[in-house]
Amino acid sequence: MENQIKRAADLILKSRFTTAFTGAGISVESGIPPFRGNDGIWTKYDPKSLEIAWFMSNPVESWNIIKELFYDFFEEAKPNKAHLVLAEMERRALLGRIITQNIDNLHQEAGSKEVYEFHGNSKRLICLDCRKFYAVSEISLDHIPPTCRQCGGLLKPDFVFFGEGIPQTALAASYEAATISDVFLVIGTTGDVMPANQIPYMAKSAGCKIIEINTEPSNYSGDITDIFIRGKAGETMKKLGAALFTTPLDNDQDGIDQDFEIHGQ
Ligand code: APR
User: Fold this and answer.
1) Torsion angle (degrees, nearest 10) of CA 259, 108, 206, 180
2) Which residue, of 21, 196, 197, 249, is most buried by count of CB atoms within 10 Å of its CB?
3) Helix/strand/coil percentages in the chain, nearest 5
4) Each residue of 171-204: pLDDT tens digit?
5) Active site annotation includes 119
6) CATH of residue 233
7) Active-site residue, from 83, 107, 119, 143
């Protein structure tokens, strides 16, 4: 692994523009299980509960599952070393932007500024009638389904449900990243889900080098990946940070690497 870390660091140090493309795997060490694989969320919950048509017809049932999945269990999740190193790379002009498939807000909480959320963000709710936004912290989820204070309409988490479109800003930023980047750092994603999974392919077609960090091979690994680093995102990014930063990570507090207990497992 050390050799791949060094090769990856050399590519990033020479790169004019590096983009990180992240999936659920980057947040596993923060206590949020992935969607697929052993113990993945979809082995316990039916993805139907996140289909927009089912949500509209069954708001109470859908919201009960959403509350349990995204708010009860994971509300306390904190950024792990991988999120922190990406934020530090941005501060040192070694990372241009993050395109994330995740809705957990952990990149922003780690300090990253240029974050584009392909699937939205679970920390915001939106009224389906008047389109007013709320921070989820403003709304009590003791009453399900939550309703808009302004018009009484149904509130929905502001993340993309199956059957919904991708936010235009994130789509445009992703297509642009695929054309302007020299390096794509792909972290913790199967590459299973359209259309997000097309972005690394577009980057590769535009001449980008693909560095991948994953505990398992993904759809990209035997295909477009130039450097595959097999390992956990937190541990691997800590090593990559050490190879990139001449001075150690400033906010290298104890305990960030601790293994968070994953609820219900
Ligand atoms: N470090 C790095 N990678 C990891 C780790 C870890 N600690 N743990 C798991 N992984 C990898 C798995 O090997 C897998 O490739 O993370 C990936 C998780 O895959 P998915 O759960 O499919 O997550 P993702 O690819 O982000 O899913 C895409 O699917 O359900 C939708 O909207 C949801 O954004 C999500 C999309």
Assistant:
1) -140
2) 21
3) 35, 20, 45
4) 999 999 999 999 999 999 999 999 999 999 999 9
5) yes
6) 3.40.50.1220
7) 119
